C-alpha cells in the first residue's frame, strides 16, 4: 500500500474564480487543511499555496497551485521533485464534467480527458500514474459551452450537491491518504447517490 504524500487541489486563484465550478479541488484542500489544522501559505518556489500536515504515517503536503489551471503542473512538478514524491504518492483533486454534481470518484492513472490542469500535470511530472479524486460538476450539454460553464458559479442546488460530494470524500480521506484506496473507493463509490 502506497501512502499519499501530496494532495493537490486544482482551481484558479483570485476572488473572481473562488466560487466557480473549476475550483472544486481548492474547496476540498481547504477542508483538509482546516481538518488537520495546517495553514496554507503562499510559497513562490512551488508556485502555489502550500501546507504541511503532520500525520501518524508521516508528513502530508497540501498544495493549491496559483498558476491558473492550465499551468498546474508547474506547481505540482516543483514540489514533487523537491520532496522526491513519486506520481503514485500524489492525489489530485479536480472538477469532473463527466460526473453529475453530488458524485465523487477515485481513479488512478489514465488520460486527462480534456482537463487542462491534468494535461499539464502529466506533462510536468512525466507520468499519468497519480491518483485523482474527481468531483462531479455536471456537463452543460454542449462542448462549446464547457469553458464558460466551468468558470461560472453552480446553481444553488448543484452547489449543495457538490458540497455533499466533498463531504462524502472527506469521510474516506484518512483511508485514501494512508494508502488503503480499495477501502476508500468502496465506501465512496457505493455511498448513496
> Given the structure, what is the number of helices?
6
Q: Please indicate the percent range of residues in DSSP E strands (runs of 2 or more).
A: 15-25%
Characterize the biggest β-sheet: 7 strands, mixed
Q: Termini distance? A: 28 Å
Helix content: 25-40%
Mean pLDDT: 95
Radius of gyration: 15 Å
Shape: globular
State the low-pLDDT regions, or none: none
Order of helices and strands: EHEEEHEEHEHHH
Number of strands: 7
Summing up helix and strand content along with how strands pair, one would put the structural category as alpha/beta
Strand order across the largest sheet: 2-3-4-1-5-7-6
Summary tags:
single chain, 193 residues, alpha/beta, 7-stranded mixed sheet, globular
Summarize the structure.
With 193 residues, the protein is of the alpha/beta class.
Give an overview in words:
The protein has 193 residues and is of the alpha/beta class. Helices cover 36% and strands 21% of the residues. It contains six helices and seven strands, in the order βαβββαββαβααα. The protein has a seven-stranded mixed sheet with strand order 2-3-4-1-5-7-6, with helices on both faces. α1 packs across α5, α2 packs parallel to α3 and α5 runs antiparallel to α6. The radius of gyration is 15 Å and the shape is globular. It starts with 5 loop residues before the first strand and ends with a helix.
Amino acid at each position: 500500500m502506497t501512502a499519499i504524500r501530496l494532495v493537490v487541489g486544482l482551481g484558479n486563484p483570485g476572488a473572481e474564480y473562488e466560487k466557480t465550478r473549476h475550483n472544486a479541488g481548492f474547496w476540498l484542500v481547504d477542508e483538509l487543511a482546516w481538518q488537520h489544522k495546517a495553514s496554507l501559505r503562499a510559497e513562490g518556489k512551488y508556485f502555489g499555496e502550500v501546507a504541511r500536515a503532520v500525520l501518524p504515517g508521516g508528513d502530508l503536503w497540501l498544495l493549491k497551485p496559483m498558476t491558473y489551471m492550465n499551468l498546474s503542473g508547474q506547481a505540482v512538478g516543483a514540489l514533487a521533485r523537491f520532496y522526491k514524491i513519486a506520481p503514485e504518492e500524489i492525489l489530485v483533486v479536480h472538477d469532473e464534467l463527466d460526473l453529475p454534481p453530488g458524485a465523487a470518484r477515485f481513479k488512478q492513472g489514465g488520460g486527462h480527458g480534456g482537463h487542462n490542469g491534468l494535461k499539464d500535470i502529466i506533462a510536468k511530472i512525466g507520468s499519468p500514474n497519480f491518483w485523482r479524486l474527481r468531483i462531479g460538476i455536471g456537463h452543460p450539454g454542449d462542448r462549446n459551452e464547457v469553458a464558460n460553464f466551468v468558470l461560472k458559479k453552480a446553481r444553488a442546488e448543484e452547489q449543495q450537491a457538490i458540497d455533499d460530494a466533498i463531504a462524502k470524500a472527506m469521510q474516506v480521506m484518512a483511508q485514501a491518504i494512508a494508502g488503503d484506496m480499495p477501502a476508500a473507493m468502496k465506501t465512496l463509490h457505493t455511498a448513496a447517490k
